[in-house]
Amino acid sequence: MISTGSKTPRVLVLGSGTSTGVPLIGCRCEVCASRDPRDCRLRSSVYITCGGFAALIDVSPDFRQQALRHELPRVDAILLTHPHADHVFGLDDIRRYNTLQQASIPAYVRDFTFRGVSRMFSYIVAPTEAQKGMYRPQIEFHETGDATVDVGPFSMTSLEIPHGPARSTAFKLEHQGRAFVYAPDCSEMSDAFRAFIRGADCVMLDGLRDREHAGHLTIENSVAAMREAGVRRGFITHISHDIPHARLEQRLPPPVAAAYDGLSFEW
Ligand SMILES: [Zn+2]
Ligand SMILES: [Zn+2]
Ligand SMILES: [Zn+2]
After folding, report:
1. Is there a contact between 218 and 195 (Cβ–Cβ < 8 Å)?
2. Of the bound ligands, which one is closest to the alpha carbon of residue 39?
3. Which of 44, 149, 159, 167 has CB 3.0 to 4.6 Å from 184, enough for a Cys bridge?
4. 174 by DSSP, 3-state: which?
5. Distance between CA atoms of 115 and 134, rounded to whole angstroms?
6. Is 3 inside a domain boundary?
7. Residue 241 Cα, ligand 2 centroid: separation in angstroms?
8. Residue 5: inside a domain, yes or no?
9. What is the pLDDT of residue 21?
10. Nearest ligand (C-alpha, residue 60)
């Protein structure tokens, strides 16, 4: 079981893959057929621990598998970036943590995420009388605007960011003056987002692939944004099957590296 007790915040990458996951179903390309475990990319999510507290950013369709793989001991807070299936479809499995912890779990979301999740998971947010007796997740949703709020040992700030025709959220968690920013889905570096990551100690940002995509940054754009912002450490995530990890690792310039499932670091 992974330890949550260290006083220094630690990030564990539960998934570093794009919405399909890698390997893709039915694909036999070099990356999907690779034996390098870093080329197996579950849907994007991170688990952040500090002083016994554990925050989960996004709850992917692979969450159950991720929780079993890493023996995640608890979930004290959930942050959801946006209501796309690859970021929220594991929510039903949160019920196990309600049982283990004998408590409901707060979830922090921006307004558009709350609206989307309310439609997709009406039995969690607004159960009918018949649904109230079901074994269903107990989650208290908190809409976060631009204000900074305390989430366990972290000061959390969020920013709405462009994600093609949709929107997503960048989350910043600060602890003792050090900041980690997570934004797995982003199509464009707005001025506000550039300012949001400026000087951050660690940023993990969308870097889907080299070819352009309406909803995502290219690897080149993501790397350039992190370098320009002077981040101490950067990672690309939400990666497609276009490029194997080993080749990414060789070509990414410091301080940027590629995330992979199971990567863990302090910030
Ligand atoms: Zn996504
Ligand atoms: Zn493939
Ligand atoms: Zn998305």
Report:
1. no
2. 2
3. 44
4. strand
5. 22
6. no
7. 5
8. no
9. 98
10. 1
Does 142 fall in a domain?
yes
Centre of ligand 3 to C-alpha 51, Å, is 31
**pTM, rounded to two decimals:** 0.97
Read off the tokens for 109.
């979301």
Question: How many structural domains are present in the chain?
Answer: 1
pLDDT of residue 10: 97
- Phi and psi, residue 206, nearest 5°: -45, 125
Per residue in 133-156, pLDDT (tens digit) is 999 999 999 999 999 999 999 999
How many whole angstroms from 255 Cα to the centroid of ligand 3? Answer: 25
In angstroms, the CA 176 to CA 201 distance is 12
Work out the mean pLDDT of the chain and round it to a whole number.
Answer: 97
Pick the ligand that lies closest to the CA of residue 240. Answer: 2
Distance from Cα 237 to the centre of ligand 1, integer Å: 10
Query: Which ligand ends up closest to the CA of 166?
Result: 3
Indicate whether 1 pLDDT > 80. no
